[in-house]
Amino acid sequence: MTGLPNRLLFVDLLDRAIKRSQRRQDCTFALLILGLDRFKAVNHSLGPVTADRLLVAIARRLQSSLRATDAVTHQPACTLARLGGDEFTVLLEDITDASDAMRVAERLQSALRLAFDVEGHQVFMSAAVGITVSTTGYARTEDVLQDAAIALHRAKADGDALCELFDPALRERAVARLTLETDLRNAIDRREFAVLYQPIISLDTGRISGFEALARWRHPTRGLLTPAEFIPLAEDTGMIRQIGRLVLIESCRQMGAWVKRFGKDAPQAMCVNVSGRQLADAGLASEIEAILEGTGLEASRLKLEITESAFISDVGAAEATLKRLQSIGVEWSLDDFGTGYSSLSYLHRLQADTVKVDRSFVSRIGAGDNGLEMVRAIVALARNLGIDVVAEGVETVHQLSQLQALGCESVQGFYFSKPVDVAAADSLIASQPWRDDDECRQAVLSGHGRLNHN
Ligand code: C2E
Ligand code: MG
Ligand code: MG
Prior knowledge:
It is a single chain. This protein is an alpha/beta fold. The chain is elongated, with a radius of gyration of 28 Å. The longest helix is centred in the first third of the chain and has 26 residues, at 48-73. The protein has helices at residues 7-23, 39-46, 48-73, 98-111, 141-158, 168-189, 227-237, 240-262, 276-279, 284-295, 315-328, 343-350, 359-362, 371-385, 397-406, 422-430, 437-446, and strands at residues 28-36, 77-84, 87-95, 116-118, 121-123, 127-133, 163-165, 193-202, 208-219, 223-225, 269-273, 302-307, 331-337, 354-357, 388-391, 410-411. Strands 8-9-11-12-13-14-15-16 form an eight-stranded mixed barrel, surrounded by five helices. A five-stranded mixed sheet has the order 2-3-1-6-7, sandwiched between helices. Strands 4-5 form a two-stranded antiparallel ribbon.
């Protein structure tokens, strides 16, 4: 269709380049793979026939930019081919080093920058480029193509219209990621996830007002993994939906058990983190309703924790989900408050019940670094909007007394307890100093009320 060599022909040329580079040291070649950004979306909106015309126009532009390169540098023999779908590839022979290939990549990318006119539509295209150079020592065409594809993947992950040069560390990372992805899929079937619970303490009463449920993965060979090690991958692959669901079910079930066992002394709320991918799911509200029904937990005992980055994809849909849940009594907190870009507008528009002041501000209290002033401003703002404040990451008695003085309602952090398993959480609840509130508050503030010392 584009009049370019197809994959088969191209692979043959590549094979010959490999053999030449094996015979002669100075015959260095580079392989570039160019991946168009958002081509699927274009295909979808313009229809396949117009999209094909666009591809032809793109191929022509790329081809002429390569010819221009040849003319200026009198250099590399280059062959452009279409790999299929939204990917093109260029074989550059007789180059001096990787910088030649980088220059060609830039030319290709800038050739796409002007708008394309296709059947009356103005379309803007951009592309990322992955490059690998034969000095890596290749014997097989598939290895060359794979390494350039890994570099392209990396370039795309970094953002639009970037260019990345392959290095072996990238391959190791790609393999590690793939292994982790397979392990994560298995982990769901094998129920390798655990939930730890970290107490949230009310400074009004000095007692545990709730617990935050925090996911852990008991990896069969790597031990207990923290969310930082698997949540990002789970979000990228969409597996967070299943994992999030498991955490919701388990933590609601646990809260139900505590209510049964401790009655009026049970903690008020179970706080569960919900990611953007889950929130974007139109079925989330019904799913949560079903979980509450299934576990017999009162809606007012569940509180969702959502970071503002979760709202980026579709605020409108998220708003509808949260409103519906609030109408049945499920509250929500804006998590890691102050670390994003638009917290204030979300607070106002989405009517959060609680804000959780990010640990980074709390840890700067007393560091002479405006931390205290930031927290003071957040507490004042929240109070004016009628929103509760929880301070995260409280580690010292100094931070605690400052927060108390500012009128912060609740605190959470290692000063009181790290996230713990059910048995330890059980004894935290059971061993709370169930005394007169005043006495209890004093105990917490003086440090004697620390729940454990791990
Ligand atoms: P988060 O929701 O802000 O949770 C608080 C994190 O801060 C927890 O880390 C907790 O262990 C840590 N932390 C609490 N107090 C202190 C302290 O005093 N000092 C320090 N240095 N750290 C403290 P964790 O468990 O590693 O979780 C990290 C993040 O992973 C969570 O941040 C949350 O965003 C995410 N996450 C955890 N579980 C889930 C889950 O089930 N679903 C989703 N979507 N995300 C989760
Ligand atoms: Mg949280
Ligand atoms: Mg947080």
